[in-house]
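Hello,

I think I submitted the zinc ion job twice by accident. Can you confirm which output corresponds to this input? Input:
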Amino acid sequence: MLPFKLVYSDDYYLPIGSHVFPAEKYKCIRDRLLASGIAVPSDFVTPSPAADEDVLLVHTPQYVHKLKTGTLTALEELELEVPYSPELVSAFWLAAGGSVLAADHALNDGVAISIGGGFHHAFPGHGEGFCMIHDVAVAIRCMQRDDKIRTAMTFDCDVHQGNGTAVIFSGTHAPGAPVPSAWGSVLHPNHPGRRRSVHAEDVFTISLHQQNNYPAFKPPSSLDMNLPDGIGDDEYLACVGDALSLGLGKLKPDLICYLAGADPYCEDQLGGLSLTIEGLKERDAIVFRIAKAEGIPVMVTLAGGYAIKLEDTITIHSNTVVAAKEVYGGTS
Ligand SMILES: [Zn+2]
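Support: Only one job matched these inputs. Its output is below.
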């Protein structure tokens, strides 16, 4: 039995037909975790859909109304890059509920993992890049509204920049939150990651992503690590430690929301970095070790993963649970 919870529902499945996004991955990961003995059935908890009032903490009433009534414009549906249906709306509301539940469990147990979520390309008033609503942002705003946390940090390791996250949390300050001044020169000039930073809020946003990839326009996160094409495990893992340490030096949050994207993988169809499966597992372990050492709870969502072989995506995501188990302990 794991010393933390896995949040999962069969209804995480996204009804989008044949698509580069492998909507069946969530169930495959659950099955893998059980078949391999990494988890047992009692490790899983089932989420409920987010309430509309929770979603409205992040998204505009106009956008929520369009989603609920099926009145997106053709352009808005095109931008979403997944086919609209009422069932898809339900799946995204459930993903948001799953992230809320995972955040709650993380605050209790030190870590929790939703076997879903991480839809970081959703903006307050529109969705894009397979992301209809921003589950992680909904979870953060719910925890803040309910006085369970005051501050949070998003640590986004999906290969694509977290543009929705950056916009949602730009310019919002919690009373008394530390506001860092401009960054000093911290990284070595030859370091592969080029940093850009502008602001700090009650939610400090960090994104490690491939510079030459979607989205073309990258609104500034609190800290962006713009990675060059093709970097491998060693350089990437150095950036992970640097970015997290830098961020925690500016804000020690009440909750870290880790987006454990599988798409920095070398055989990803939508990524251009060169990480190995082992490197990605070590990435997860670094995040967990640092968070545990700092005593900060971590809520994990999976985000993207488009490996040529679905099995590899399943392995990478399953390894996130393995890494958490190794860091936080547990027997099964
Ligand atoms: Zn991605």
